[in-house]
Amino acid sequence: MRVLMLGWEFPPFISGGLGTACYGLTKAMSQLGIKVTFVLPKQVDGDYATHVKLLTPGSKGAVSDEFSGLEGCKNISFRTIGSPLRPYSTPEFYRQSIERMLERTGKKNKDIPQNWQFEGIDYSGDMYTEVHRYAALANNLAKDEEFDIIHAHDWMTYPAAIAIAGLTGKPLVVHIHSTEFDRSGEHVNQMIYDIEKKGFYSADKIIAVSHFTRNILISRYGVPGGKIEVVYNGVERNGTDNWPLEKSGIQKDEKIVLFLGRITMQKGPEYFLQAAQRVLSVMDNVKFVMAGSGDLAHRTIEMAAELGIGDKVLFTGFLRGDDVKKIYQMADLYVMPSVSEPFGIAPLEALDNDVPVIISRQSGVSEVLVHALKVDFWDVDEIANKIVAVLKHPPLQITLRNYGNFEVRKLRWSESAAKCAKIYEQMLTPVG
């Protein structure tokens, strides 16, 4: 079986859970013998390597099954299309990216053209036009590929996937990891909402990462429930190396409570800090670590100072690779106070590193974890109470850690890939 997959990030070029999910899913699919051609919207720096060789736009027509470092991914090849589009982007963020490019060329920001070239690659001046320019390029690329099915991840890939499906007549699966309602609350961007809705209605089948997300698709987009299959995310099994505190500024007798994720409205960083303030009013030997980046990062630093806990909150910025593993294994507790979380891979990673977790009830991962403490994101008093309970009572911490770690072993990408493969087979089997 051959799959043309369209996604928006892949290690080491990741900014959130989408890249982690694409990595785990494609690796597991490769081990099932499914051949995947993965289309990425960026010009890849050849100095970086994952388990596959990433092809630049200049390598037209070439398909590579080379990989380095990790085994089991010989069936994955990559195509890349030059584009400044990034995961979790907004039209405003896109414009800022273009402005930074223009500054490097010496042009004035107010002179952003509709169509222009930067470092040999054509770009569009606004995000909406760029999404459709990318769709046209992906459509042309697909003419030279052989595949049985199209699998598109999240909204920016949908126009491209719809165009390719129209050109080839191949079945289309759209995979929804996050909706515009998750990212923006009630103040949705109409353009993004319209693209999402068209993708859902154009698809032959929709994969949602949780029943939480499935219900949003039904209630907010009017998608028939029979069209949606739920496939939970998994996690890669990690080792249990011990990491020293080194130069973190954290004392050996201090407890560490971790927030790891994009620092955006969706992830609830303000609720984490408000709970931290309440914890620190009854416990002093605690440090709160916020690992990640996002549009609220600066405001979150200011908020910590305003709450009078600036010396107790450490901001690491965006972490990747071994640094992520290190911060998990330093932590005594992981907290995810997300306002609206379609799934949430980070709690699985925390448990996989023997860290107990507190998670928002407004998350998909709460459907699959029994041995996790669950809270409403807005109830900062309850979040604080549960943090104190875990930190002050070692038997509770040990129980959550041990049972949670055992539970997460059942959530593997091999299971997710097998479910996707079954969906593919059903779509490719002639009716009657």
Please tell me about this protein's structure:
The structure is a single chain. This protein has about 425 residues and is α/β, with parallel strands linked by helices. It folds into 2 domains: about 1-235 and about 415-430, Glycogen Phosphorylase B (Rossmann fold, 3-Layer(aba) Sandwich); about 255-410, Glycogen Phosphorylase B (Rossmann fold, 3-Layer(aba) Sandwich), CATH 3.40.50.2000. About 40% of the residues lie in helices and about 15% in strands. It is built from 14 helices and 15 strands. The chain has helices at about 15-30, 90-105, 125-140, 160-170, 180-185, 190-200, 210-220, 270-280, 295-305, 320-330, 345-350, 380-390, 395-410, 415-430; strands at about 1-5, 35-40, 75-80, 115-120, 120-125, 150-155, 170-175, 205-210, 230, 255-260, 285-290, 315, 335, 355-360, 375. A 7-stranded parallel sheet has the order 3-2-1-6-7-8-9, with helices on both faces. The protein is globular and about 65 Å long. Residues about 45-70 and about 240-245 have low confidence and may be disordered.
